[in-house]
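Lab manual, section 2.4: Encoding a predicted structure.

Procedure: take the sequence of the chain (270 residues), apply the prediction step described in section 2.3, and record the output as structure tokens. A sample record is shown.
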Amino acid sequence: MKKALLAGAAYLVALLFLAPYLKMLITALTPGDELITIPAQYLPSRFEFSNFIDVWSEAPLATYLRNSLIIAGFATALSLFVSLPAAYYTARNRYRGRLAFLLLVLITQMFAPTALVIGIFREFVALGLVNTYLSLIIVNAAFNLAFSTWILTAYFSTIPVELEEAAAIDGASRLGILFRVTIPLALPGIVTATIFTFIAAWNEFVIALTLAQSPDLHPLTVGVTTFVGQYSVEWQYLFASSLIAIVPVVILFIVIEKWLVGGLTAGAVK
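Recorded output:
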């Protein structure tokens, strides 16, 4: 009986989380003329599957999708490129100011991009980088660098240093130890940092809206606002494009899910 109640509660919670996505799907499949009928209907008279095809011609969705992949992909790579050596050094060395560095990393997570958007815009104007991929990649990488460094430091700390010492005794170089011993063992933590950084960069809106002034550089988060007009909203296309935007993240999560749990629980069990 207890298990049945727990299972029922779990299904109920899952339904509550999935209900908004179900509503998005129904709206995306609803003919446009039925979305403005009074009184409103919860279910359409017919499902308009062509909305998912027409949305590609109603807006340059392929361009927006390409921009999001470029920005999120390179921002993730840059963030990991910087955070990996920083986290490894911090985990393996007890240098002066280590605690202050970790606290600084944690504090930077408290600053939202929205609060810094004016300063960021003026800085990139001075550098002549407004309306470029580089500015969006740098900002997204910078705002996710603290999280990547923090979680990788925690994971590197769980790897016994004796394994690296044994590899050194066997003649492995410092780089050989790092790439053949430490990084493979730290893969769950690296995957965790990767997926969270990618999702954060993929979902970023305010900075992209400010720095990407050309429609050719708009990511999906900014591009879908094309369907929001001054006097009307094309809800069927707005929700269809929003569902399409979810697909790459879901695919990424499915591919690396088996490493994600290990990365999130690093340091929890000793």
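Check your result against the sample. The mean pLDDT is 84.
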